[in-house]
Each structure stands twice: as C-alpha cells, then as structure tokens.
Amino acid sequence: MKPNHYIRAVNSAARAMEEIDRLHRQGIQREDIYVLAHSKERTNELAEAADINTISVEEEGLLTTMANLFRSRGDELRAKLVAAGVTESEARMYEEELDRGKVLIMVANRQAASASR
Length: 117
Description:
mainly alpha; three-stranded antiparallel sheet
C-alpha cells in the first residue's frame, strides 16, 4: 500500500465517512482508500459501509499477518501501520490516536499526492 503519508485521524465514524467521500470526489478510487480503527469490528464495519479497504495480508505480508495472531492489539496496529509504510515512531503516534478512539483514513501511494490537495 505505502500511503506516502496521506493519513488523517478523524474523531468519529461520521467524520470518517465525510473524509472518504471528500477523497472520492477528488478522484481518488475507493480501492486506494484504507481505514483503520482500534477494534477490528469497527475497522471492518467502516470499510464495508464505505466500500473501501482494510490493511490485509496483501499489504502486510503473510509473516506479519501470522505474527499478529500472537501480538497484543497495540502491537498488531503498529505492525499494520509499518506494513502500510509509516515509520515506527509514526506508528506509535498513530496508535495513540487509535487508543483515543480516532479512526485513520489512509490513501495508497499512487493517489496520495492528489489526496492532500
């Protein structure tokens, strides 16, 4: 995926949907937009409702996905973020945002430049 650092932390599911719609109106394809919340259920619900992606085996790789089965949720979230292309320090910062109930909206590399406009 490699989001090229277009990541936005939003305060609610409603704000996440607004951000996703804004990105889509800018011409970003839904398959290039990813969502991550602290709980797996919330992540999946938002992805399904907005018809966008989650960070999956394809982005993480099989070994990271397998290792995540044995990690705490915080460690798993950081591993997903690193697999998505952020640094370890950024992953810690974003995980803290997720701990506070925020939702992360990310855009895949080929679309990230236009997302920040």
